[in-house]
Write a structure and sequence with these properties.
alpha+beta
Length: about 900
């Protein structure tokens, strides 16, 4: 850009919306936005009239993405959106900045509809309508992210700020409301729209119905505005940010796109220019930078795998010995063999499959079940389920196969520490992950046949096995290697021919001498059933498994490594297209670690070679601290920490000891990650690096006492030195930390346990870490349902019949609770607006404390949630005889507040 030339947008960037739009018209630029402005205005009109605009469909399972769909589009609008907002279309115009992962707040767009149809719970339900997308591949997602959500959030900010309550100091509240009023003025919304909302406007003098009416009045005011003009004013304000950002980077001429399009400005470019940087420059009357490269398509991946089979032909063509070609190929691949690391592992999987197939083929009722043949389960040392044999593959697979798996998958790379290749404590698990859905399905169907026939119980039946294993079956179809559906017809028929159910029982006989002679007592305890006919079902599965392998196994294995490597190559090329440079090793590891661990033993350099790219750095291979098997090591840690197997009597009669042993087992499992971190870091990890706050420490002093104990055990087993602070710690020597001598008077509740509480004021405080949460309460009748929607007590309806909510605490005056209320559920839910995509788990945990003025102090810390739970019932206060009790619940919901509301009878929209 010429520094002495004046452009229309330079004045527009500093002007008010009306003047800026006039300058845009004078420059002849307004027509380019006519269709998008009209689209936004019509959808806004639909929403303000009370109609839904978008829907969220939750994905099933951890790895299935949610989807967002704008349902209010006409056919013509849908066609326009496909062209303007389609992901591939925007990428063809150079928008490689589009996020691959995105959380879409569709609830903001549907909030007007919810305010009219469900006014009492609109904000809560809108917060639930957040899509945690793992893949961005639809025009509707980009339409929401770039255009609609920013518009609706601006217009409805007064409603959201009032719903948050007085959580900010008065000075900050005044500033926030001044900013909102200025935005409304710039949008041309008439004076008085915010009279009831603004700071000092009397909002707190309104009752609940009055506040609901104020929200509806605001919607009516917005609906009465000139929406096309309002949308245009909102657009020009966003474009003014783009103009300002461009000007800052244009001191020495037109800047490159990646220097201007920050994360804040990327949605603006996608919303109004279809992601086309050249269209942005045309709007700003600027010529492209001479080094600007608009990449309209990514290069096709070129994989260097399978070249070892071509050495003879290459040698003949070049007139040299094949051994020389093999040596050159080995040097290129960076190893001692002309066979690539990927080829080696694919060949090992073929060998493993042969052993796996034989194990299932010869299985008979006289043998233990094959549960444990594939390393897919969580480690468990305190107690294992009936029928499960830990590391069964050691007994049932050939020694040469075990050796191959142990050698080829013995190392991995940690995504956050890619500079080193470290020990892999579970090579058989990594191998099973590399094999993927084929192993999952064929092993799963074999186990189903066993447990249906031999007992003691099965998670599904043979006639439902296709539905139970629908996920791996769908993946096999997508890979072009489907399972013959005739298998399921034969299994249904075979199930009809099984013998009758026979009880499996443990029986004991004892004799007692009496004056009348000897009396014999026989007792028995049933623990499941069995049905004769396993061999027939086994043979059906074997026939179909072998037919599948003969037809598909080779193609399937090639699909497994090819799809993962091509995905890495695609992500690399996309990174280069977006950033204009190659990724660093740690940036590469973010999308390449899984493939490297599956196919190159964690060697990122070998993975770079496989996709034909130069590696930016070489990884180190530190001395291995985990010399043997990971399971053996973890067992030693478990024993050293005081762990012991939990027998049936302890499991039934001592839940606290059972829980403590499970927690020690969890620490033993996590110790493997500690050793990996120590190898990668070159020294023992700190508590923060290890993530000790995610774990439960079953010592009186909790983490303060348990952390040095764990460090001492691991230092002894790995024969390494302790950090100085740990070596001198009294806790590490086995003594509890000193204090004031009073101890902790709290009673710790295990999940499901209960304790009496006095009939008085009872405070339940939920303390959360890792994610912001909301705390609420639900008043329930003896049927477990609410009397009305008012029985949901939360920040926007903070009190009801003796129960009140304030911040992180629910207080129940038990002597004031009506007789119609039998229990009070205290609920904790993640604030998904503040932290989109967050779920309860290792990184987001909570604990509950129950206190009373009488001195009652109870606490409950649940185990780590392992699903997609965003809501949990923490504790329950319930009537018992003439008093009250508290119960530790810890029940999670992966369906959000709407799922909990359905269970409790709170009316929600479908």
């Amino acid at each position: 850009m010429a520094s002495n030339q004046t452009y229309w947008w330079q004045s527009a960037a500093q002007a008010g919306p009306e003047e800026a739009l006039s300058l845009e018209v004078a420059a002849g630029q307004q027509d380019r936005f006519a269709e998008v402005d009209a689209l936004a205005a019509r959808l806004l009109s639909v929403a303000l009239a009370g109609q839904p605009v978008a829907t969220i469909t939750l994905g099933r399972g951890l790895h299935t993405p949610d989807t967002a769909k704008v349902t209010a589009l006409t056919k013509a609008e849908a066609s326009l959106c496909a062209d303007v907002f389609g992901v591939q279309e925007q990428q063809r115009r150079g928008a490689w900045y589009l996020p691959t992962k995105l959380s879409v707040k569709a609830g903001a767009v549907d909030l007007p509809h919810l305010l009219r149809e469900r006014p009492a719970h609109a904000l809560t339900l809108a917060a639930d309508e957040t899509a945690r997308l793992t893949a961005v591949d639809g025009a509707d997602t980009i339409l929401l992210w770039a255009l609609l959500v920013p518009l609706f959030e601006t217009l409805l900010q007064p409603v959201r700020l009032r719903a948050a309550g007085d959580i900010f100091p008065p000075t900050q509240q005044k500033q926030s409301w001044a900013l909102i009023e200025e935005r409304y003025r710039l949008l041309g919304i008439k004076d008085g729209a915010l009279d009831a909302f603004r700071f000092g406007g009397g909002w707190h003098n309104l009752d609940r119905s009055g506040q609901q009416q104020a929200r509806l009045d605001l919607l009516d005011t917005l609906a009465g505005a000139d929406l096309v003009q309002l949308v245009a004013r909102h657009r020009i304000q966003r474009l003014q940010g783009l103009m300002t950002g461009f000007a800052k980077k244009a001191k020495a001429g037109t800047p490159l796109a990646r220097r201007v399009l920050t994360k804040e400005l990327q949605p603006v470019a996608s919303a109004y220019f279809g992601g086309d940087w050249l269209a942005v420059l045309d709007y700003l009357q600027a010529r492209p930078h001479p080094n600007e490269e608009i990449i309209t398509a990514l290069p096709e991946p070129r994989l260097y795998v399978g070249t070892s089979s071509q050495t003879a032909g290459v040698a003949a063509e070049a007139g040299i010995a094949e051994s020389e070609v093999q040596a050159m190929l080995a040097a290129f691949l960076g190893g001692g063999s002309p066979m690539s690391p990927v080829e080696e592992r694919a060949a090992a999987l073929r060998s493993w499959w042969a052993g796996f197939d034989r194990a299932h083929t010869v299985q008979s009722p006289a043998m233990p079940s094959l549960w444990g043949l594939v390393d897919q389960e969580l480690m468990s040392f305190s107690r294992t389920e009936q029928g499960f044999t830990l590391q069964l593959y050691r007994q049932r697979l050939p020694a040469d196969v075990l050796g191959l798996v142990g050698r080829l998958w013995e190392t991995v790379t940690l995504q956050r520490h890619p500079g080193s290749i470290v020990s892999n404590p579970r090579p058989h698990q990594t191998m099973a992950d590399a094999l993927g859905p084929a192993g999952e399905f064929w092993h799963g169907v074999g186990l189903t046949a066993w447990f249906v026939c031999e007992g003691p119980y099965s998670r599904t039946t043979l006639d439902r096995v296709d539905r139970y294993h629908s996920k791996p079956l769908a993946a096999l179809r997508a890979a072009g290697c489907p399972v013959d559906t005739a298998l399921f017809r034969e299994l249904r028929a075979a199930e009809q021919m099984l013998g009758p159910q026979e009880e499996i029982a443990d029986r004991a006989t004892s004799a007692v001498e009496t004056p009348f002679g000897q009396i014999t007592f026989t007792s028995g305890m049933g623990h499941g059933t069995r049905r004769e006919g396993f061999e027939r079902v086994r043979d059906v599965i074997t026939r179909y498994r072998r037919a599948w392998a003969e037809q598909h196994l080779e193609t399937y294995l090639q699909h497994r490594w090819r799809s993962e490597l091509e995905n890495v190559a695609h992500q690399l090329h996309r990174f280069v297209a977006e950033k204009g440079r190659a990724p660093t090793l740690i940036q590469f590891s973010r999308f390449a670690t899984t493939a490297a661990n599956h196919w190159t033993g964690g060697d990122l350099g070998a993975l770079y070679t496989a996709i034909g790219e130069p590696a930016p750095a070489e990884q180190e291979r530190p001395a291995r601290l985990l010399a043997g098997d990971g399971y053996d090591f973890a067992r030693q840690v478990f024993r050293e920490l005081g762990g012991k197997p939990v027998d049936h009597g302890t499991w039934v009669n001592d839940p606290e000891e059972t829980q403590r042993q499970w927690q020690l087992g969890r620490l033993a499992t996590e110790s493997l990650r500690y050793v990996q971190l120590q190898e990668a870091l070159g020294q023992p990890p700190t508590a923060k690096q290890f993530g000790s706050q995610r774990l439960v420490w079953p010592w009186p002093g909790k983490e303060e006492e348990g952390w040095p104990v764990l460090q001492r055990v691991l230092a002894a087993l790995t024969r390494t030195s302790l950090p100085p602070a740990t070596a001198s710690s009294p806790a590490a020597a086995g003594t509890a930390p000193t204090g004031d001598g009073h101890g902790d008077a709290r009673e710790v509740l295990a999940k499901g346990a209960n304790a009496p509480v006095a009939i008085g004021a009872t405070a339940v405080r939920v303390i959360a870490n890792g994610a912001p949460v909301d705390v609420s309460a639900v008043l329930l009748t003896s049927s477990g349902r609410v009397r009305s929607d008012d029985d949901l007590v939360f920040f926007n309806h903070p009190s009801q019949d003796g129960v009140r909510v304030s911040g992180d605490t629910v207080t129940a005056d038990l002597f004031l609770i009506p007789e119609t209320v039998s229990s009070i559920a205290v609920v904790v839910s993640i604030d998904t607006e503040a932290q989109p995509g967050a779920v309860f788990g290792q990184d987001a945990r909570w604990e509950a404390e129950i206190t009373q003025p009488s001195g009652t102090r109870l606490s409950f810390t649940p185990e780590v949630f392992n699903g997609r739970e965003t809501v949990a019932v923490a504790v329950e206060l319930y009537r018992r005889a003439d008093g009250w009790k508290a119960r530790a619940v810890g029940q999670g919901y992966d369906t959000g507040l709407s799922g909990l509301a359905t269970d409790y009878g709170i009316t929600i929209e479908a």
